What we know:
Elements lengths: L10 H5 L6 H10 L2 E4 L7 E4 L2 H8 L4 E2 L26 H10 L4 H5 L2 H15 L4 E3 H18 L8 H8 L10 H20 L9 H12 L4 H32 L1 H8 L5 H14 L10 E2 L3 E3 L2 E3 L4 E4 L1 H4 L34 H19 L2 E3 L21 E4 L1
Parallel strand pairs: 2-8
Antiparallel strand pairs: 1-2, 3-5, 4-10, 6-7, 9-10
Helix pairs in contact: 6-7, 6-15, 7-11, 11-13, 11-15, 13-15
The chain binds protoporphyrin IX containing FE.
Amino acid sequence: MPAPAVPSPPPDLSAVRVRDPYPFFAWLRRHSPAHADRRPGRPTVWQISRYDDVRALLGDGRLSKDPARVSGYVAGPTGLNRHLVHADPPDHTRLRTLVNAAFVPRRIAQLEPFIADTANRLLDRIEQHTHVDVIADFAAPLTFRMICAILGVPDELDNAATRDTLMATIAPAPGLDPARMEAGLHALLDSLIAGKRAGAERSGVDLLGALVRASDDSGAMSEEELRSTAYLLLLVGHDTTMNLIGNGMLALLRHPGEAARLTGPEAGAGLVASAVEELLRYDSPVRDATFRCAAQPFTLHGGLIAEGDIVSLLIGSANRDEARFTDADLLDVSRTPNDHLAFGFGPHFCIGAALARLEGSVAFPLLLERLGPVTLAKPADELPWRPARVMRGLAALPVVRS
Ligand code: HEM
């Protein structure tokens, strides 16, 4: 029998993919840079792993972001997929413009004292304990509070139950009934949007109030787009940055020499800024770019990508590509230049990049300083990673303070 043109990835690399995708990604980059995953009854998924290809395709008009083009593909919760991540121009341009104003760096910079104050309050509580979960006790409440402040979510909904409702939509707990999960999510959005319509004012940016007005007064967005956008922002505004803090702290705990540089004589705003970029690159919170499919056929590395095939751009792999980054598997908090793709590239470049960078640059130095010496509470390869389609993040990061 003739040998297959493209070998299959070794099963042992696939088996540990959630915990450690990097050996699998290195195999793809080397042996099958445009790798077709074909399963009966499912659309073909192409995995693109090299930096140059991922960067080029992130902005390539031959790829569409509209999941409705792929029959049978379930993009997300029912009735909540009409947002900018799943839109092509001109809808994408219209929706992005409506959201963008709240995230311009000048406006985001004003949040710094609020971020620092919130982080310090969480650390005041943490300081009373020896066993700490960096995710549940710090990263989750901090990042959710920030997106709630920007959207204008009332205090009574800024809590762990709301976060669980949102997170269940991308990483459902085993046994959770999908219909119940969606009902909970729609009830949350009903209550939030009704609150804005009833005129509930809140201090802060109140982006959701502005979007409700844009929908009601000028029809700039439909009701479905409004609900979808609120869901998207609540979810990605929190989950991604939580993963930056979780993945980043784990990387620092596993590289104490690099962590020490951030608290030693070399420390300063410049090193913190480059450390945040390096942590984004080293263990990227968005592992695979969001949905894309081929709007027309094209060839890549000898593979024919057919119209309607899903094209998965592996950001986490691109950011470890030796062809782009010297010693790509090494963590170097002073790495420059560092043109990683952790926030994407092109027309869908992350709207929240300035916010995420600011949260990271406040959180890491404070955590290192105020937690004091800490060790992992369990071996690194036993830590629980959340199984999710796009994101890479820990369900818990338990540490012990000494
Ligand atoms: C460390 C944190 C974050 C990372 C790593 C990250 C990463 C990304 C990436 C890779 C994309 C592009 C996806 C693609 O093209 O397929 C993206 C888009 C987006 N991000 Fe972020 N993000 C982060 C934080 C945030 C925050 C805090 C917000 C605030 C709401 C946000 C809102 C968005 C939105 C709305 C888009 C869609 C933009 C569009 O489609 O035009 N992100 N992000």
